[in-house]
Structure of tRNA-specific adenosine deaminase:
Amino acid sequence: MLTKYTEYLIHKKWMSRALELAQAAGNAGEVPVGAVIIDSTGYLLAEGENRKERDKDPTAHAEILAIKTAATTLQNWRLNECTLYVTLEPCPMCAGAIVQARLGLLVYGVDDPKTGSIRTVTNIPDSAASNHRLQVIGGILESACRRQLQAWFATRRHKRS
């Protein structure tokens, strides 16, 4: 049994990796969001970063790409023994995919006041339409995740003016 502090250190480690992926996405002109999926033993199964612009694909969100890779790696669409780390609270599409994948735990960095569909704007996992009860931890490395997004959007606005 892990202590709360040990669990926090594990969450911090994987969210730090998700932040690195988000930075890579931001450097490539994408909204900086990164995602990591680990299995129950702590083994890295999949990583994803936003790729909508590069792939010309509206579904190429970090979470979706990571879920697809994890499912392929495990040869199973049920990811109930897995944990997804993502820097930004998932949107409705990603929240639906997370529920459909039966992920065991979602850990995210910062709330999304515009499209957050886990706790902020809507609550897809706890809705009557959900057939899976998702465990959620929010706020891991929240300040770092917020700063990264705010800096990226500020730079983007500055380039437009």
Remarks:
- The CA atoms of residues 89 and 111 lie 5 Å apart.
